[in-house]
Specification:
Length: 208
């Protein structure tokens, strides 16, 4: 069984490698600290499990998931992140991951997740199960950007690029007051209060 442990922190990779070896003594383990190395390994070996952090110097690993699935569709991906499951997990599942685990999880939970991933093909924590149930019951979009209209999304994209109201009005041929109205709607729909929060949402949910 072949594992790739991808994280830009050596201590995280070493700790996970020890846990993997405890459960799967015959496992062969490769380590990567950046996207380039992950891509290289995916081209060179048949990977059974890829344990992947969310944030790397090159960006967010959401951008890597489609490549992984295209290159090795049978590879099982576990997202191992410090980000809260309640906020981020569902979108990673929706993008193709088979497991999401917080780095604060204890050893027993990590082992349980690894065994489920290998033997059953998927791992869902109790938190994620509840999120899936709530999302399906309320028919709530997994991607908060889905709340925005096409025009609102255009305005939001320009805001994230650093354009002000006048510049946005010129680009989209809108009145400045109309741009202000769109900005207000965007913040209300996404339940945010400032530009920094909008940029963070784009990083995780839209500009992949």
């Amino acid at each position: 069984m072949h594992f790739i442990l991808a994280d830009d922190h050596l201590i995280v990779r070493q700790g996970m490698a020890m846990l993997v070896k405890e459960i799967f003594p015959q496992a062969k383990i490769w380590q990567a600290d950046n996207f380039t190395k992950v891509r290289q390994l995916l081209q060179e070996i048949a990977v059974d499990v890829l344990i992947l952090d969310v944030s790397f110097p090159e960006g967010n690993s959401l951008s890597l998931l489609p490549e992984i699935k295209k290159c090795q569709p049978d590879c099982k991906v576990m997202i191992f992140s410090a980000l809260e499951e309640e906020v981020h997990a569902l979108y990673f599942y929706n993008a193709g991951a088979q497991a999401y685990l917080n780095k604060l999880s204890d050893e027993e939970q990590i082992q349980k997740a690894l065994l489920a991933l290998v033997n059953e093909g998927r791992y869902l924590s109790e938190i994620v199960k509840e999120l899936f149930f709530t999302s399906n019951f309320k028919e709530k979009p997994l991607n908060p950007m889905d709340y925005l209209s096409e025009r609102e999304l255009e305005v939001a994209r320009l805001m994230v690029k650093g354009l002000g109201n006048l510049e946005i009005s010129n680009v989209l041929n809108l009145q400045k007051t109309t741009v202000s109205t769109y900005k207000k709607r965007i913040f209300e729909k996404l339940q945010i209060e400032h530009l920094a929060a909008l940029i963070e949402l784009f990083v995780y949910y839209h500009e992949q």
